[in-house]
Amino acid sequence: MTRWRSVLGAALAAVLLGASLIAPASAAPGAAQPPAQRLKWGACAGSSTTELRCARVKVPLDHRNPRGRKIEVMVSRLPATDPAKRRGVLLSARGGPGQGGGIYLPEDYAVLMAPEVRARYDLIGFDVRFLEQSTPITCGYPSEEPEGFWNRGAQSRSEFELHVVEARQYARDCQKHAGWALPHATLENIARDMDVIRTALGERRISFLGADALGTVGAIYATLFPRQTDRFVLDNPLDPTKLWQSSRLERIALMEDGLDEFSAWIADRDDEFGLGDTAAQVERNVAEMWENAPWYAGGRWWTGDELVYYTILGVFFEAFEWRMAANLSAIRRGDAPPVQWGLYPTVRPGVLGVPIDNHTAVSTAYMCAESPWRSNVESYWRDLQRYVPPFPNFGVAAANIFPCAFWSSRKDNRVTLGSRHTPPVLVLGATRNSIVPLSNVRAVATALRGSRLVVEDSRGHELYPFFGGDCLKDRANRYLTSGDLPRADVRCPAPAQTG
């Protein structure tokens, strides 16, 4: 029996961000210019915020052939709260890509961002190409994978051979259903879509906030369009030279360290959770739940995928430790988990036309199209033998065969960051991030010359404006408000935990 099918990548399906637009102030850096296309703004499906308005922007499927086939990118806008102080637009989309649409990000930003930031920017959210409301794709499957990632964990040769067959078939099915789109699912194309959005909004420059792979998109945009780049905040960006096979392997040790930390935190509260009074005992008990799944609790059966996902949320986000520990503890006792949490990607009620497997199809497409993966099947078996012994919890899936080994499009689409014209930006990182190595974050900050790095001592992700402490948020607020970068890189203490 497969030990579990790991869920990798950004693990935050519940948080969304978004954006909007009003008439620009004439003297601002984002001062309007004639838009390239006329946008028809209307209500955003699935939104309860009447101020949030949505429109479709037409972009080239292939930016090398701008007169060719067009696809649509859905954008949203939420006006700056003080037209007299308005600077321009702040674009944002969800990380991943594939972990959820960015249309509703403005709703959360409006609550979490400092008032002085909200006063200056129209928040612009968008779904990246092929995701949800932006000409969505499918690979023809009847359901999503947990958190939208195709993963299988192999601990034996027979399991591995089974997963080779599954991965090859998944790649064939994606080619059958979405072959027209697959070569164009790249981070560079997201960046180029952003510039089409800029011209459609009539803006001379844009500001930007993005985490994880979308942080990398921001760095790519600043490289390709330096004169259109205003204030960019890149939150734990990935190093594009590592995408994606190398970064997948690079995360294994980070995730194991994060599990050790999470388990130690639980062990210190054994009276509350009853999962073990040492980190090793907690890990054994949790692994036993994965291995013995399906596990019956609270009137339903819990799959190994679902139990792993709850564990990973606690590993990735210190802010979720209590919630996920409480859920795992309750399920182990046979009770319903006290914290309701979505386990599979979904679209909001009222959003129509999104294929049921869209998030899994999109996350796989971007991971496979950015750069070629090794096609030698035996090399993946050797990876398992190398990574599983030292990393038994996460090596079984992260080192395993993946559909990208059989992908039809095999081209290196990675962008070299930085040029002498690229403006400096603000880069955020965390010392114990279990998803993105700090070395990746530093590499991006170094490539964009003059940029400043704010590093927080935490096991956090999506730091601004969600999970970072006051020190980090203050630096980001100050930069977005005044444009002032720190004179030198900044180290921030761990944020206070609210439990």
Structural account:
The protein has 499 residues and is an alpha/beta fold. Helices cover 37% and strands 12% of the residues. It has 16 helices and twelve strands. The chain has helices at residues 105-112, 115-120, 157-178, 187-201, 213-224, 245-267, 270-273, 279-291, 304-316, 321-333, 358-369, 377-387, 395-398, 438-447, 463-467, 470-482, and strands at 42-43, 53-60, 70-78, 88-92, 121-126, 206-211, 229-235, 295-297, 300-302, 426-430, 452-456, 490-492. Strands 1-2-3-5-4-6-7-10-11-12 form a ten-stranded mixed sheet, sandwiched between helices. A two-stranded antiparallel ribbon has the order 8-9. Strand 10 (426-430), helix 14 and strand 11 (452-456) form a beta-alpha-beta unit. Helix 4 packs across helix 5 (213-224), helix 8 (279-291) packs antiparallel against helix 9 (304-316) and helix 9 (304-316) runs antiparallel to helix 10. 56% of the residues are buried.
